[in-house]
Amino acid sequence: MTAVLPTSELDRGAPRWMTWVPWLAVVWAAGYGCVRLWFALGHEPTWKLPTADLLVPGWVSVIACVVSALLVLTPARTRALMVLTYAIAVGWTAACALALLDVVAGVLPGLGIPFDLAGMLSRLGGLTGAVLLAGTALSRQRQLDGSCLGCSNRRRTATSTPKWAIAAAWIAIAGCATRLAAQAAIGFDAVSYAPGLQMILFEAGFLLAGLALPLLLVYRPGRVFPRWMLLLPGIGLGTGISAYFGVGLIQMTAAALQGKPVYAEIGLPTSFFWVAVPAYLLWGLGLAVATYGYAQRTRKPCKLCGR
Asked: C-alpha angle 144/145/151, rounded to 5°?
């Protein structure tokens, strides 16, 4: 298995994380699995958000922990196993999509979004597993390739911003603009957040993330900023928005197929959600892809093969 390959089977110059990340993934699956089992047996705390801590039932999360451990412990012989490990990591990210609300509630407490410390810690645990599983899958990908354990000999440092990254940035901007247009159609006073300074800061951050950040990722003005200053919000917001509203769109579709109202408790027209939620999803996906293009353009050569 990738997680327990003997040291002799790994290139001595390989990144050290390729050895210990899979082991941490197993430890995480065992520890977090016990927490999920305790919750599933009826001992979970009272959550402040309308839903539970994760967007999956309790026993599903327990089974997911078992599956995660089995995937890591299974010898990495095929790419199918690697792809499945990536898929489980994506699944954990989607299950913890409410973490986006944790960030907003923590940074802007005056908006009126409940800050649930217990729920946040639980989601942080799930996201930790997603990162460890993705790291395990990447380790397997590099070992299966075999050409370079540092980058699979597939790294490319782009000399200019790829056209697909520029297109993704404009898709993100279009998604943000569509979301604003949907709000304008029903009135900017039809919001559930408390007015005041926190709301102004939220709107400023909204515009920065939806208009300024995508442009900075793909055009020359963004080069004056330190790499991490654009990568961190690009990865965090791109992943968070995509996960949160991707799950939301699935829930809306399921409700519509069952003839149920869509988010009736919020009191806004159904048509608003069918425009706003897909727009958010386009925004998040576009931002994530543009960030990947930025990472390709600004990455340093591999320390092992020099590419």
From this structure: 115
Domains of the chain plus CATH, in order, are: 2-145 (1.20.1440), 163-298 (no CATH)
Rounded Cα gap, residues 163 and 233, in angstroms: 21
Helices (H), the chain: 17-38, 58-73, 79-95, 99-107, 117-145, 163-186, 197-207, 213-218, 227-257, 270-298
Contact call for residues 138 and 151 (beta carbons, < 8 A):
no
**Spatial distance between the Cα atoms of 298 and 306, rounded to a whole number of angstroms:** 15
**Over the stretch 98-112, which tens digit does the pLDDT of each residue have?**
999 899 888 888 777
The DSSP output letter for 122 is H
Residue-wise pLDDT tens digits, 42-70: 999 999 887 889 999 999 999 999 999 99
Q: Angle formed by the axes of helices 79-95 and 117-145, to 10°?
A: 170
Q: Report the distance separating Cα 35 and Cα 44, nearest Å.
A: 9
